[in-house]
Amino acid sequence: MNHQPAHQTALIPIRKLPQRPVLESVDAIELTLVAFLRITVAALMAIWTVAPTHAAPSQTETDSNDALVPALIEITTKLATQRYPDAQIEATALPLPPMLAQGKTCDEYTLSVPDNWHPSRIPVRVRCQGTHPWSFFTGVKLSISIEAATTNHLLARGATIGKQDVSLKWITLTHHNQDLLHDLEAIVGQKAYRTLRPGKAMTSRDLVQPYAVSKGERVTIQARIGSAQITTTGTALSNGHIGDQISVRNETSARVIKPWISAKGTVTTRPIET
């Protein structure tokens, strides 16, 4: 028998087969396919039986996930209201992690918030307790607006602020303006620490308390000797606020003394009790 080279194609003579063997071949093929399908189905059934399955979440777990976002909104809104009682507050929960959308559930969540949160966003740690505890971090975006003192017009540095200079306007808080002032009565009478543009939301850093006693000002000196109180006048040689110790020249004796400022324009020879 001659062997063909490996790279050549062998030519097989075609002959017509008898009719019955052909029918037998078809029947054999059909039986083979049926057997193959049965084996395949049996194998798939075995795979499905052995493969791990994930139980559908219980109704309690599903309800817990559904209630998570409202709980985040509620707890952060309460915290914001406690810090800013008269504020207008809008809260929006940040997207939750994909694992919750993929079916990860929990019977009961525990939420924790740090004390030093900023008014624009509150971070929240969500914990799931149980045999295999897990947790993740999310947060709530806040928009907090309060009525704050703003300047009605340009105020020069050192200007004493009057009632006509400031008014209340709604201002949205940010990380940089958390200490806005809102008590107009407390602001009136103070001085501008720097030049303030019109519409400037004021903070304590923009103001300076006026001196209770200014250098060169004539002051009342109060001194107590035993049960007697002596009052005289003098000239302040330095500036100061209430409680400060300053230099004053006694007009009667021309001596320089070091009394304490007890009130506007008044000093006393005894320390001020605080």
List the helices and strands and how they pair.
Elements: H1 19-50, H2 59-66, H3 68-83, E1 88-93, H4 98-101, E2 109-112, E3 121-128, E4 134-151, E5 166-172, H5 184-187, E6 191-192, E7 207-208, E8 218-225, E9 228-236, E10 248-250, E11 256-257, E12 260-263, E13 266-268
Parallel strand pairs: 8-13
Antiparallel strand pairs: 1-4, 2-3, 3-4, 4-5, 6-7, 8-9, 9-10, 10-11, 12-13
Descriptive overview:
- The strands form three sheets. A six-stranded mixed β-sheet has the order 11-10-9-8-13-12, with no helix packed on it.
- A hairpin with an 8-residue loop joins strand 2 (109-112) and strand 3 (121-128).
- Mean pLDDT is 79; it is low at 1-62.
- The chain has helices at 19-50, 59-66, 68-83, 98-101, 184-187; strands at residues 88-93, 109-112, 121-128, 134-151, 166-172, 191-192, 207-208, 218-225, 228-236, 248-250, 256-257, 260-263, 266-268.
- By secondary structure, it is α+β, with helices and mostly antiparallel strands.
